[in-house]
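Hi R.,

Here's the chain you asked about this morning:
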Amino acid sequence: MISVDNREAAVAILRGTAIDYIDETASGVAGKHDAGGQSQRRFERNRIAELNKYYKRIATDAKRLVDFRPIELFMSGPADAKVKVYKKLDYRLRDIPVKFIDQEYSAYTGILQTINRLQ
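And the predicted structure, written out as tokens:
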């Protein structure tokens, strides 16, 4: 189970009623801005590069899920960050059936919200 947005993410495994957290991380990436001038495009390129590094870091953390041999993968969070992270996942995780769940929260709260929606 991965809950992600552009600010924070959590990777967890659900076994029965127990939730084992593998990792929780924050991006540290600045939000979008609309400052004009010549630097605007440079700032946006740097922001996108930082987000890609963040997505790769989540995918690396999620690689530890392979050891648990999950039968299904849930990716939740707002917007399209979950799809971008999914594209960077290890091939063994991409072979597992995946469900994308849109929701308002990510990280620890997002994991709990995902579990509540699945019940």
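The chain has a mean pLDDT of 89.

Let me know if you need anything else.
M.
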